[in-house]
């Protein structure tokens, strides 16, 4: 039988999704379960197993040439283990071994961090398609990312390369849960945008929405504190993006995630601040654009990362 599909898993703190992905990025078969994030390791793996069993029961399953996993991290591709911050029951958990036990040891498996998976998706089918150097980011409850270098996804030896959320952009900034100070994530993530606005005296509207979405609504209405909180987040992102571009000479930064859904509230100050940070001639033309693939990016990207890492024809990954 022709092996013209790749199986994909997208594992996060809210949901565990699976799919069989075609060479054009189409999701042919889907399965999904809520992530029992507060449960022990075995219960969480049980949800992964349910998703995989649903996929393996599909008549298309024998066409799978390999399996890609994009997981919340940190991940360690060299050992096949994961330690997601938002799944406390998994610490150095042997995810790849557990997946192989379910699907069979003959199927090759590739593990990457979720930021790398989304980068692979946007490079294969999205806003970074055809670009030789790119940084793709997710700005949501956290800030993650991944790199395209020389036209190929660059996951690094452990699958975490490009994790821009934990670049420090404020030397005397607040402590970050990662152990460092002044990280991009500590300033620009959705919860921290909201926390900053609240600490400066912003009050939620009649609907009581105290999240970044509520701050965005207030900013659109002209609230100066809400606008300042988004401006500060944009400045942190600009500093991190410029540092990355200066280091590895990317030509485009693609930003997705819930905070990016604020549109010009984020992108206008981001582009403005970027002019103050990306000043050298080889980074001054850096583009910043929204991601285009939405909620399926994790699955599409897990398949794309597997296609590249496992060298599975006939898939192309946008190079």
From TrEMBL:
InterPro entries: ATPase_NBD, ROK, ROK_cs. Pfam families: ROK. Gene3D superfamilies: 3.30.420.40. Belongs to the ROK (NagC/XylR) family. This is ROK family protein. It comes from Streptomyces coryli.
